[in-house]
Amino acid sequence: MSKIEIGLNLVFVGHAEKPFREGIELAARFGYKYVEPCVATGYDLLALGGYYHMLSMLDDPLEVKEQLDALGLKPSAISAHCTLMRPEVAVPYLTQAIRYAGDLGAPVVNTDEGPKPEWMSDDEAFDIMRYTICQVMKTAERYGIKVGLESHQQYTVRRDTFLRLLELSDSPCWMVNWDTGNYYLGGNDDPYETLELVADRVCHMHAKDISIQQSDAERGEVTGTPVGCACGEGVIDWPRVIEIVNRHNRQCVLCVECGEIDQAERSIKYLQGIV
Questions:
Q1: Per-residue pLDDT tens digits for 190-235
Q2: Which of 12, 175, 190, 273 sits most deeply, having the most CB atoms within 10 A of its CB?
Q3: DSSP letter string over 159-204?
């Protein structure tokens, strides 16, 4: 049975230079039940100074869980984006993120393939990514954490290479974090038809809308964008997205990914009206 919840990626407080604690307090005030933190392997001096929402995995995840519990929030996922084509970075980062997610109670760790080095061929890239993914899946399966491949870079905004990436592992933990805005901006294939093809592997979604102005300026020219506009104010056909998810009986969180505090507030009001 399909069950769609509404969450919020903490990037919405980035432009306002707010720390993690203020971000989750705002999310709770707006009525969100889920949030998606972003984690780093070390310390971010801006985050320590209170200007950024990044969490360090050197700190105690149970302390973060206590903060979320106090506000009635749950983690839908954690963001741990890195380049799968650099296993010396991706393997330790993602395996640490999986362990952190297990302690935090987050069922999903999101990542993407990352930018491809200029000297690397496509075949070399896929061989290296297969190594990275297979190594990471061992830890993911031990902890029961899903890894969501996000549509965000050169391979995941093209249908043929996105499907090829998903075929690199048959692990039940190797799944999809569908980003509505990024795939739309990629401009290579119909985003709704591609969502139909991968819907059975969707474990989490970034609810990212794209303004008409950004669509006119960037579609087909970029592979993604950090944030979008408020949901319902752009070009994404949200009723169609939700119909596809429901028809495939997916249980996932639509995690709003926008760049302004007021956009986060407007997004939940819109999505609550159609979910």
A1: 999 999 999 999 999 999 999 999 999 999 999 999 999 999 999 9
A2: 12
A3: HHHHHHHHTT---TTEEEEEEHHHHHHH-SS-HHHHHHHHGGGEEE
